[in-house]
Design brief:
homodimer; alpha+beta; Fumarylacetoacetate hydrolase, domain 2; 6 helices; 14% helix; 34% strand; globular; Fumarylacetoacetase_C_sf (chains A, B)
Protein backbone atom coordinates (compact mmCIF):
# COMPACT_ATOMS: atom_id res chain seq x y z
CA UNK A 1 0.00 0.00 0.00
CA UNK A 2 0.98 3.58 -0.62
CA UNK A 3 -0.36 5.71 2.23
CA UNK A 4 -0.46 9.48 2.63
CA UNK A 5 -1.98 12.34 4.52
CA UNK A 6 -3.81 14.37 1.87
CA UNK A 7 -5.34 17.81 1.97
CA UNK A 8 -9.07 18.16 1.44
CA UNK A 9 -11.30 21.26 1.34
CA UNK A 10 -12.10 20.67 5.03
CA UNK A 11 -8.71 19.69 6.43
CA UNK A 12 -6.67 16.55 5.97
CA UNK A 13 -7.38 12.83 5.89
CA UNK A 14 -5.30 9.71 5.88
CA UNK A 15 -5.61 8.04 2.49
CA UNK A 16 -4.49 5.05 0.47
CA UNK A 17 -3.55 5.24 -3.19
CA UNK A 18 -5.81 3.49 -5.74
CA UNK A 19 -4.35 3.94 -9.20
CA UNK A 20 -4.45 7.68 -9.87
CA UNK A 21 -6.82 8.26 -6.97
CA UNK A 22 -6.56 8.60 -3.21
CA UNK A 23 -9.24 6.90 -1.11
CA UNK A 24 -9.97 8.16 2.40
CA UNK A 25 -9.04 6.18 5.50
CA UNK A 26 -10.91 6.84 8.77
CA UNK A 27 -8.25 9.05 10.41
CA UNK A 28 -7.35 12.70 10.02
CA UNK A 29 -3.73 11.89 9.14
CA UNK A 30 -1.21 9.04 9.19
CA UNK A 31 -0.08 9.85 12.76
CA UNK A 32 -3.62 9.04 13.88
CA UNK A 33 -3.90 6.10 11.46
CA UNK A 34 -0.73 4.45 12.79
CA UNK A 35 -1.76 5.14 16.38
CA UNK A 36 -5.17 3.45 16.02
CA UNK A 37 -4.42 0.94 13.27
CA UNK A 38 -6.83 2.54 10.80
CA UNK A 39 -4.12 2.70 8.12
CA UNK A 40 -5.24 -0.91 7.41
CA UNK A 41 -8.97 -0.12 7.35
CA UNK A 42 -11.14 -0.59 4.27
CA UNK A 43 -10.66 2.40 1.94
CA UNK A 44 -13.56 4.81 1.64
CA UNK A 45 -14.51 7.26 -1.08
CA UNK A 46 -12.11 8.87 -3.52
CA UNK A 47 -10.84 12.23 -2.18
CA UNK A 48 -11.28 14.82 -4.95
CA UNK A 49 -8.16 16.87 -5.66
CA UNK A 50 -6.16 15.10 -2.97
CA UNK A 51 -2.61 16.42 -2.54
CA UNK A 52 -0.15 14.65 -0.21
CA UNK A 53 1.02 16.85 2.66
CA UNK A 54 3.27 16.09 5.65
CA UNK A 55 2.35 12.40 6.22
CA UNK A 56 3.18 12.19 9.93
CA UNK A 57 2.51 15.53 11.64
CA UNK A 58 2.78 14.26 15.23
CA UNK A 59 5.43 11.54 15.68
CA UNK A 60 6.14 11.03 19.37
CA UNK A 61 9.81 10.47 18.59
CA UNK A 62 12.05 11.33 15.67
CA UNK A 63 15.44 9.64 15.99
CA UNK A 64 18.12 10.27 13.39
CA UNK A 65 21.28 8.37 12.56
CA UNK A 66 24.37 10.18 11.33
CA UNK A 67 27.42 8.74 9.58
CA UNK A 68 25.70 5.64 8.22
CA UNK A 69 26.91 5.34 4.60
CA UNK A 70 30.56 4.42 3.99
CA UNK A 71 31.06 7.13 1.38
CA UNK A 72 29.64 9.87 3.63
CA UNK A 73 31.70 8.62 6.58
CA UNK A 74 34.86 8.76 4.46
CA UNK A 75 34.06 12.29 3.21
CA UNK A 76 33.88 13.47 6.83
CA UNK A 77 37.28 11.85 7.46
CA UNK A 78 36.05 9.24 9.94
CA UNK A 79 36.38 5.46 10.45
CA UNK A 80 33.48 3.00 10.11
CA UNK A 81 31.65 3.08 13.44
CA UNK A 82 30.94 0.25 15.89
CA UNK A 83 27.71 1.91 17.05
CA UNK A 84 25.18 4.15 15.33
CA UNK A 85 25.52 7.89 15.97
CA UNK A 86 22.10 9.12 17.08
CA UNK A 87 20.40 12.43 17.69
CA UNK A 88 16.80 13.63 17.94
CA UNK A 89 14.55 16.05 16.11
CA UNK A 90 11.12 17.37 17.10
CA UNK A 91 7.81 16.86 15.32
CA UNK A 92 8.04 20.62 14.67
CA UNK A 93 11.24 20.03 12.65
CA UNK A 94 9.23 18.26 9.94
CA UNK A 95 7.50 19.87 6.96
CA UNK A 96 5.57 18.71 3.91
CA UNK A 97 6.87 17.13 0.69
CA UNK A 98 6.30 20.23 -1.48
CA UNK A 99 6.55 22.96 1.16
CA UNK A 100 8.93 25.85 0.67
CA UNK A 101 11.89 25.65 3.05
CA UNK A 102 12.14 29.01 4.79
CA UNK A 103 15.73 29.21 5.94
CA UNK A 104 17.60 32.00 7.65
CA UNK A 105 20.10 32.73 10.43
CA UNK A 106 22.74 30.63 8.66
CA UNK A 107 24.53 30.91 5.33
CA UNK A 108 25.54 27.24 5.47
CA UNK A 109 22.34 25.30 4.85
CA UNK A 110 23.21 21.84 3.56
CA UNK A 111 21.20 18.85 2.22
CA UNK A 112 21.03 15.26 3.48
CA UNK A 113 18.77 12.90 1.49
CA UNK A 114 17.59 10.00 3.66
CA UNK A 115 15.43 6.92 3.79
CA UNK A 116 13.07 7.15 6.79
CA UNK A 117 11.42 4.29 8.66
CA UNK A 118 7.93 4.53 10.15
CA UNK A 119 7.39 2.37 13.22
CA UNK A 120 4.28 0.19 12.82
CA UNK A 121 3.99 -1.65 16.15
CA UNK A 122 5.36 -0.91 19.63
CA UNK A 123 8.96 -1.91 20.10
CA UNK A 124 11.04 -2.29 23.24
CA UNK A 125 14.34 -4.15 23.54
CA UNK A 126 13.74 -5.86 20.27
CA UNK A 127 16.20 -8.03 18.37
CA UNK A 128 16.79 -7.52 14.64
CA UNK A 129 13.99 -9.87 13.61
CA UNK A 130 11.40 -8.26 15.87
CA UNK A 131 12.57 -4.80 14.82
CA UNK A 132 12.24 -5.67 11.13
CA UNK A 133 8.76 -7.08 11.73
CA UNK A 134 7.73 -3.84 13.47
CA UNK A 135 8.45 -1.64 10.44
CA UNK A 136 5.18 -0.05 9.38
CA UNK A 137 6.42 1.69 6.28
CA UNK A 138 9.08 3.64 4.46
CA UNK A 139 9.25 7.26 3.45
CA UNK A 140 11.70 9.94 2.31
CA UNK A 141 13.30 12.76 4.31
CA UNK A 142 15.90 15.45 3.88
CA UNK A 143 17.78 16.23 7.10
CA UNK A 144 18.64 19.84 6.20
CA UNK A 145 21.42 21.07 8.47
CA UNK A 146 22.72 24.52 9.36
CA UNK A 147 26.38 23.49 9.37
CA UNK A 148 27.69 26.52 11.28
CA UNK A 149 25.18 25.97 14.10
CA UNK A 150 25.84 22.21 13.96
CA UNK A 151 29.55 22.84 14.57
CA UNK A 152 29.21 25.58 17.19
CA UNK A 153 29.46 22.91 19.90
CA UNK A 154 30.12 19.18 20.17
CA UNK A 155 26.44 18.34 19.81
CA UNK A 156 24.84 18.56 16.35
CA UNK A 157 21.28 19.07 17.64
CA UNK A 158 21.16 22.88 17.31
CA UNK A 159 22.05 22.63 13.61
CA UNK A 160 19.39 20.04 12.91
CA UNK A 161 16.27 20.93 14.89
CA UNK A 162 15.09 24.11 13.13
CA UNK A 163 11.33 24.22 12.79
CA UNK A 164 9.92 23.12 9.42
CA UNK A 165 13.29 22.32 7.80
CA UNK A 166 13.07 18.51 7.37
CA UNK A 167 10.72 17.70 4.47
CA UNK A 168 9.08 14.29 4.78
CA UNK A 169 6.92 12.18 2.45
CA UNK A 170 5.25 12.35 0.01
CA UNK A 171 3.96 8.86 0.82
CA UNK A 172 4.52 6.05 3.30
CA UNK A 173 4.96 2.75 1.47
CA UNK A 174 4.26 -0.48 3.36
CA UNK A 175 7.02 -3.14 3.50
CA UNK A 176 5.20 -5.52 1.15
CA UNK A 177 5.79 -3.06 -1.70
CA UNK A 178 9.43 -2.00 -1.38
CA UNK A 179 12.54 -3.59 0.12
CA UNK A 180 15.25 -1.17 1.18
CA UNK A 181 17.18 -4.08 2.71
CA UNK A 182 17.77 -5.37 -0.83
CA UNK A 183 18.79 -1.87 -1.96
CA UNK A 184 16.94 1.21 -3.18
CA UNK A 185 18.61 4.23 -4.74
CA UNK A 186 18.67 7.33 -2.52
CA UNK A 187 19.36 10.51 -4.46
CA UNK A 188 19.32 14.27 -4.14
CA UNK A 189 19.18 16.90 -6.87
CA UNK A 190 19.52 20.68 -6.81
CA UNK A 191 17.84 22.41 -9.78
CA UNK A 192 17.98 19.04 -11.54
CA UNK A 193 21.69 18.41 -10.95
CA UNK A 194 22.35 15.23 -8.97
CA UNK A 195 24.46 15.80 -5.84
CA UNK A 196 23.90 12.54 -3.94
CA UNK A 197 23.27 8.94 -5.01
CA UNK A 198 23.84 5.71 -3.16
CA UNK A 199 21.98 2.50 -2.36
CA UNK A 200 20.29 1.68 0.94
CA UNK A 201 22.01 -1.71 0.62
CA UNK A 202 25.25 0.03 1.67
CA UNK A 203 23.93 1.36 4.99
CA UNK A 204 26.33 0.50 7.81
CA UNK A 205 23.36 0.03 10.19
CA UNK A 206 20.18 -0.91 8.37
CA UNK A 207 16.66 -0.11 9.55
CA UNK A 208 16.37 -3.30 11.61
CA UNK A 209 19.69 -2.58 13.33
CA UNK A 210 18.62 0.98 14.09
CA UNK A 211 15.17 0.16 15.45
CA UNK A 212 16.59 -2.63 17.62
CA UNK A 213 19.38 -0.39 18.93
CA UNK A 214 17.12 2.56 19.72
CA UNK A 215 14.59 0.23 21.37
CA UNK A 216 17.29 -0.69 23.87
CA UNK A 217 16.92 2.64 25.62
CA UNK A 218 13.51 3.96 24.65
CA UNK A 219 10.22 2.44 23.55
CA UNK A 220 9.21 3.12 19.96
CA UNK A 221 5.54 3.46 19.14
CA UNK A 222 3.45 3.37 15.95
CA UNK A 223 4.06 6.49 13.89
CA UNK A 224 7.50 7.20 15.38
CA UNK A 225 10.23 7.93 12.85
CA UNK A 226 13.82 6.82 12.44
CA UNK A 227 15.91 8.59 9.78
CA UNK A 228 18.65 6.29 8.54
CA UNK A 229 21.40 8.73 7.57
CA UNK A 230 22.63 10.31 4.35
CA UNK A 231 24.97 9.19 1.54
CA UNK A 232 28.09 11.02 0.43
CA UNK A 233 27.82 14.22 -1.56
CA UNK A 234 26.78 16.82 0.99
CA UNK A 235 27.76 20.44 0.41
CA UNK A 236 29.97 20.65 3.49
CA UNK A 237 32.32 17.98 2.10
CA UNK A 238 32.73 19.55 -1.35
CA UNK A 239 35.73 21.57 -2.49
CA UNK A 240 34.77 24.35 -2.57
CA UNK A 241 31.95 23.93 -0.08
CA UNK A 242 28.50 24.46 -1.57
CA UNK A 243 25.43 25.67 0.33
CA UNK A 244 21.75 25.90 -0.58
CA UNK A 245 20.79 29.21 -2.22
CA UNK A 246 17.56 31.16 -2.40
CA UNK A 247 15.23 29.91 -5.12
CA UNK A 248 16.93 26.55 -5.67
CA UNK A 249 14.68 23.50 -5.99
CA UNK A 250 15.77 20.60 -3.80
CA UNK A 251 14.59 17.15 -4.89
CA UNK A 252 15.03 14.17 -2.60
CA UNK A 253 14.16 10.73 -3.92
CA UNK A 254 14.12 7.16 -2.74
CA UNK A 255 13.53 4.68 -5.55
CA UNK A 256 10.09 3.08 -5.40
CA UNK A 257 8.86 5.43 -2.65
CA UNK A 258 8.73 8.95 -4.04
CA UNK A 259 10.26 12.38 -4.40
CA UNK A 260 10.25 15.45 -2.17
CA UNK A 261 10.36 18.70 -4.13
CA UNK A 262 11.00 21.77 -2.00
CA UNK A 263 12.00 25.30 -2.98
CA UNK A 264 14.60 27.07 -0.87
CA UNK A 265 13.50 30.45 0.49
CA UNK A 266 16.66 31.77 2.06
CA UNK A 267 16.76 35.11 3.78
CA UNK A 268 19.33 36.69 6.01
CA UNK A 269 17.18 38.51 8.52
CA UNK A 270 20.07 40.09 10.39
CA UNK A 271 18.59 43.57 9.93
CA UNK A 272 15.36 42.75 11.76
CA UNK A 273 16.56 39.98 14.02
CA UNK A 274 19.93 38.85 15.36
CA UNK A 275 20.55 35.27 16.44
CA UNK A 276 21.02 35.17 20.19
CA UNK A 277 24.71 35.29 21.01
CA UNK A 278 24.88 34.97 24.70
CA UNK A 279 28.54 34.52 25.52
CA UNK B 1 3.00 29.48 44.13
CA UNK B 2 4.23 25.96 44.57
CA UNK B 3 2.55 23.74 41.98
CA UNK B 4 2.59 19.97 41.58
CA UNK B 5 0.91 17.03 39.96
CA UNK B 6 -0.33 14.93 42.85
CA UNK B 7 -1.67 11.41 43.01
CA UNK B 8 -5.26 10.88 44.16
CA UNK B 9 -7.27 7.67 44.60
CA UNK B 10 -8.70 8.19 41.10
CA UNK B 11 -5.64 9.34 39.17
CA UNK B 12 -3.72 12.59 39.30
CA UNK B 13 -4.59 16.26 39.51
CA UNK B 14 -2.71 19.48 39.17
CA UNK B 15 -2.53 21.15 42.57
CA UNK B 16 -1.25 24.20 44.39
CA UNK B 17 0.31 24.09 47.85
CA UNK B 18 -1.58 25.72 50.73
CA UNK B 19 0.48 25.34 53.90
CA UNK B 20 0.67 21.61 54.56
CA UNK B 21 -2.13 20.91 52.09
CA UNK B 22 -2.48 20.58 48.35
CA UNK B 23 -5.57 22.12 46.74
CA UNK B 24 -6.79 20.81 43.41
CA UNK B 25 -6.52 22.82 40.19
CA UNK B 26 -8.87 22.06 37.27
CA UNK B 27 -6.41 19.97 35.21
CA UNK B 28 -5.27 16.38 35.44
CA UNK B 29 -1.59 17.38 35.69
CA UNK B 30 0.72 20.36 35.23
CA UNK B 31 1.27 19.58 31.53
CA UNK B 32 -2.44 20.20 31.02
CA UNK B 33 -2.45 23.12 33.46
CA UNK B 34 0.36 24.94 31.64
CA UNK B 35 -1.24 24.17 28.26
CA UNK B 36 -4.62 25.70 29.18
CA UNK B 37 -3.54 28.25 31.79
CA UNK B 38 -5.42 26.55 34.62
CA UNK B 39 -2.29 26.56 36.82
CA UNK B 40 -3.45 30.10 37.70
CA UNK B 41 -7.09 29.11 38.40
CA UNK B 42 -8.72 29.50 41.79
CA UNK B 43 -7.69 26.55 43.99
CA UNK B 44 -10.37 23.97 44.75
CA UNK B 45 -10.74 21.48 47.58
CA UNK B 46 -7.88 20.01 49.59
CA UNK B 47 -6.69 16.73 48.04
CA UNK B 48 -6.52 14.14 50.84
CA UNK B 49 -3.24 12.22 50.98
CA UNK B 50 -1.81 14.08 48.02
CA UNK B 51 1.69 12.95 47.00
CA UNK B 52 3.62 14.85 44.30
CA UNK B 53 4.41 12.70 41.27
CA UNK B 54 6.09 13.56 37.94
CA UNK B 55 4.90 17.18 37.56
CA UNK B 56 5.08 17.42 33.75
CA UNK B 57 4.30 14.04 32.16
CA UNK B 58 3.90 15.33 28.58
CA UNK B 59 6.29 18.16 27.73
CA UNK B 60 6.34 18.69 23.97
CA UNK B 61 10.05 19.45 24.12
CA UNK B 62 12.80 18.72 26.62
CA UNK B 63 15.99 20.57 25.73
CA UNK B 64 19.11 20.09 27.83
CA UNK B 65 22.25 22.16 28.13
CA UNK B 66 25.60 20.51 28.81
CA UNK B 67 28.82 22.12 30.02
CA UNK B 68 27.20 25.13 31.66
CA UNK B 69 28.99 25.50 35.02
CA UNK B 70 32.63 26.61 34.99
CA UNK B 71 33.69 23.94 37.48
CA UNK B 72 32.05 21.12 35.48
CA UNK B 73 33.52 22.45 32.23
CA UNK B 74 36.98 22.49 33.80
CA UNK B 75 36.60 18.93 35.15
CA UNK B 76 35.87 17.74 31.60
CA UNK B 77 39.02 19.52 30.41
CA UNK B 78 37.28 22.05 28.18
CA UNK B 79 37.31 25.84 27.64
CA UNK B 80 34.41 28.16 28.49
CA UNK B 81 32.04 27.97 25.52
CA UNK B 82 30.78 30.75 23.23
CA UNK B 83 27.49 28.91 22.63
CA UNK B 84 25.40 26.55 24.75
CA UNK B 85 25.83 22.84 24.04
CA UNK B 86 22.33 21.45 23.53
CA UNK B 87 20.73 18.04 23.19
CA UNK B 88 17.20 16.64 23.55
CA UNK B 89 15.41 14.12 25.73
CA UNK B 90 11.93 12.64 25.31
CA UNK B 91 8.96 12.98 27.64
CA UNK B 92 9.50 9.24 28.23
CA UNK B 93 12.94 10.00 29.68
CA UNK B 94 11.34 11.67 32.70
CA UNK B 95 10.22 9.99 35.93
CA UNK B 96 8.79 11.05 39.27
CA UNK B 97 10.52 12.72 42.22
CA UNK B 98 10.49 9.61 44.43
CA UNK B 99 10.42 6.88 41.78
CA UNK B 100 12.99 4.10 41.86
CA UNK B 101 15.47 4.44 39.00
CA UNK B 102 15.62 1.08 37.23
CA UNK B 103 18.97 1.08 35.48
CA UNK B 104 20.66 -1.62 33.47
CA UNK B 105 22.69 -2.22 30.32
CA UNK B 106 25.46 0.04 31.62
CA UNK B 107 27.84 -0.16 34.59
CA UNK B 108 28.60 3.57 34.31
CA UNK B 109 25.45 5.34 35.46
CA UNK B 110 26.36 8.85 36.60
CA UNK B 111 24.48 11.72 38.26
CA UNK B 112 23.89 15.31 37.08
CA UNK B 113 21.89 17.55 39.43
CA UNK B 114 20.21 20.38 37.51
CA UNK B 115 17.91 23.35 37.76
CA UNK B 116 15.10 22.97 35.22
CA UNK B 117 13.00 25.74 33.66
CA UNK B 118 9.34 25.32 32.77
CA UNK B 119 8.18 27.45 29.85
CA UNK B 120 5.08 29.46 30.77
CA UNK B 121 4.11 31.26 27.56
CA UNK B 122 4.92 30.59 23.87
CA UNK B 123 8.34 31.77 22.83
CA UNK B 124 9.83 32.24 19.37
CA UNK B 125 12.93 34.26 18.52
CA UNK B 126 12.81 35.96 21.86
CA UNK B 127 15.43 38.25 23.32
CA UNK B 128 16.66 37.80 26.91
CA UNK B 129 13.96 40.00 28.41
CA UNK B 130 11.11 38.23 26.59
CA UNK B 131 12.62 34.85 27.43
CA UNK B 132 12.86 35.72 31.11
CA UNK B 133 9.26 36.94 31.13
CA UNK B 134 8.13 33.64 29.57
CA UNK B 135 9.47 31.51 32.42
CA UNK B 136 6.51 29.76 34.02
CA UNK B 137 8.35 28.08 36.85
CA UNK B 138 11.38 26.29 38.20
CA UNK B 139 11.90 22.69 39.14
CA UNK B 140 14.64 20.14 39.84
CA UNK B 141 16.02 17.41 37.59
CA UNK B 142 18.78 14.84 37.56
CA UNK B 143 20.12 14.15 34.07
CA UNK B 144 21.31 10.60 34.79
CA UNK B 145 23.72 9.50 32.09
CA UNK B 146 25.04 6.11 30.96
CA UNK B 147 28.58 7.31 30.33
CA UNK B 148 29.69 4.36 28.22
CA UNK B 149 26.73 4.78 25.86
CA UNK B 150 27.20 8.56 25.91
CA UNK B 151 30.78 8.11 24.69
CA UNK B 152 30.16 5.36 22.12
CA UNK B 153 29.79 8.02 19.44
CA UNK B 154 30.22 11.78 19.08
CA UNK B 155 26.60 12.44 20.03
CA UNK B 156 25.61 12.16 23.72
CA UNK B 157 21.92 11.46 23.06
CA UNK B 158 22.06 7.64 23.40
CA UNK B 159 23.55 7.93 26.89
CA UNK B 160 20.92 10.41 28.04
CA UNK B 161 17.56 9.34 26.61
CA UNK B 162 16.87 6.12 28.54
CA UNK B 163 13.23 5.82 29.50
CA UNK B 164 12.35 6.85 33.08
CA UNK B 165 15.89 7.83 34.10
CA UNK B 166 15.56 11.62 34.58
CA UNK B 167 13.71 12.34 37.83
CA UNK B 168 11.86 15.66 37.83
CA UNK B 169 10.03 17.63 40.50
CA UNK B 170 8.81 17.42 43.17
CA UNK B 171 7.22 20.83 42.59
CA UNK B 172 7.21 23.66 40.10
CA UNK B 173 7.78 26.98 41.83
CA UNK B 174 6.62 30.15 40.10
CA UNK B 175 9.15 32.95 39.51
CA UNK B 176 7.63 35.25 42.13
CA UNK B 177 8.82 32.84 44.85
CA UNK B 178 12.41 31.96 43.91
CA UNK B 179 15.14 33.71 41.92
CA UNK B 180 17.75 31.42 40.40
CA UNK B 181 19.24 34.43 38.58
CA UNK B 182 20.34 35.75 41.98
CA UNK B 183 21.73 32.32 42.91
CA UNK B 184 20.27 29.16 44.39
CA UNK B 185 22.34 26.23 45.64
CA UNK B 186 22.17 23.12 43.41
CA UNK B 187 23.35 20.00 45.20
CA UNK B 188 23.45 16.24 44.88
CA UNK B 189 23.91 13.60 47.58
CA UNK B 190 24.41 9.84 47.44
CA UNK B 191 23.36 8.06 50.63
CA UNK B 192 23.62 11.43 52.38
CA UNK B 193 27.14 12.26 51.16
CA UNK B 194 27.29 15.43 49.12
CA UNK B 195 28.86 14.97 45.68
CA UNK B 196 27.84 18.20 43.92
CA UNK B 197 27.23 21.77 45.08
CA UNK B 198 27.29 25.02 43.19
CA UNK B 199 25.16 28.11 42.73
CA UNK B 200 22.89 28.84 39.78
CA UNK B 201 24.46 32.30 39.81
CA UNK B 202 27.57 30.73 38.23
CA UNK B 203 25.77 29.33 35.16
CA UNK B 204 27.62 30.30 31.97
CA UNK B 205 24.27 30.60 30.15
CA UNK B 206 21.40 31.39 32.47
CA UNK B 207 17.79 30.39 31.92
CA UNK B 208 16.98 33.57 29.96
CA UNK B 209 19.99 33.01 27.70
CA UNK B 210 19.00 29.40 27.10
CA UNK B 211 15.34 30.04 26.35
CA UNK B 212 16.23 32.88 23.97
CA UNK B 213 18.86 30.80 22.22
CA UNK B 214 16.65 27.71 21.79
CA UNK B 215 13.76 29.90 20.62
CA UNK B 216 15.95 30.95 17.70
CA UNK B 217 15.47 27.60 15.99
CA UNK B 218 12.34 26.10 17.56
CA UNK B 219 9.21 27.46 19.17
CA UNK B 220 8.87 26.76 22.90
CA UNK B 221 5.39 26.23 24.32
CA UNK B 222 3.88 26.24 27.83
CA UNK B 223 5.00 23.14 29.72
CA UNK B 224 8.16 22.60 27.68
CA UNK B 225 11.31 22.03 29.71
CA UNK B 226 14.85 23.32 29.51
CA UNK B 227 17.45 21.68 31.76
CA UNK B 228 20.24 24.13 32.54
CA UNK B 229 23.24 21.82 33.02
CA UNK B 230 25.08 20.33 35.97
CA UNK B 231 27.78 21.58 38.36
CA UNK B 232 31.14 19.89 38.91
CA UNK B 233 31.36 16.69 40.91
CA UNK B 234 30.04 14.04 38.54
CA UNK B 235 31.28 10.47 38.94
CA UNK B 236 32.96 10.36 35.53
CA UNK B 237 35.35 13.16 36.51
CA UNK B 238 36.42 11.63 39.86
CA UNK B 239 39.67 9.77 40.44
CA UNK B 240 38.90 6.94 40.67
CA UNK B 241 35.68 7.22 38.69
CA UNK B 242 32.57 6.52 40.74
CA UNK B 243 29.27 5.14 39.39
CA UNK B 244 25.84 4.72 40.91
CA UNK B 245 25.33 1.38 42.68
CA UNK B 246 22.28 -0.74 43.38
CA UNK B 247 20.39 0.42 46.48
CA UNK B 248 21.96 3.84 46.74
CA UNK B 249 19.66 6.78 47.46
CA UNK B 250 20.22 9.73 45.12
CA UNK B 251 19.08 13.12 46.40
CA UNK B 252 18.96 16.11 44.08
CA UNK B 253 18.16 19.50 45.55
CA UNK B 254 17.73 23.06 44.41
CA UNK B 255 17.49 25.52 47.30
CA UNK B 256 14.00 26.94 47.74
CA UNK B 257 12.45 24.53 45.23
CA UNK B 258 12.73 21.01 46.60
CA UNK B 259 14.47 17.66 46.67
CA UNK B 260 14.24 14.58 44.46
CA UNK B 261 14.85 11.37 46.37
CA UNK B 262 15.28 8.30 44.16
CA UNK B 263 16.60 4.83 44.94
CA UNK B 264 18.89 3.19 42.40
CA UNK B 265 17.74 -0.25 41.23
CA UNK B 266 20.66 -1.42 39.15
CA UNK B 267 20.63 -4.76 37.41
CA UNK B 268 22.87 -6.18 34.77
CA UNK B 269 20.43 -8.15 32.66
CA UNK B 270 23.05 -9.60 30.34
CA UNK B 271 21.81 -13.13 31.04
CA UNK B 272 18.32 -12.48 29.77
CA UNK B 273 18.98 -9.68 27.33
CA UNK B 274 22.02 -8.38 25.50
CA UNK B 275 22.26 -4.77 24.35
CA UNK B 276 22.10 -4.66 20.57
CA UNK B 277 25.62 -4.56 19.17
CA UNK B 278 25.12 -4.29 15.50
CA UNK B 279 28.52 -3.66 14.04
Amino acid sequence: MRLATVSTPTGTTAAVQDGEDWRALPARDLSAAFADGSWAAAPGAVVPGAVPVLPLPRPGKVVCCGLNYGEHIRETGRELPAHPTLFAKFADTLTGPTDDLRLDASAQWDWEAELAVVVGTPLHRADRAAARAAIGGWTVANDLSARDWQRRTLQWFQGKAWDATTPLGPVVVTPDEVDPFAGLAVSCRIDGVEVQRDSTATLVFDAADLLAYVSTFTVLRPGDLVLTGTPGGVGMARDPQRWLADGEVLETEVEGIGTLRNTIRLTQEESSWTPATTA
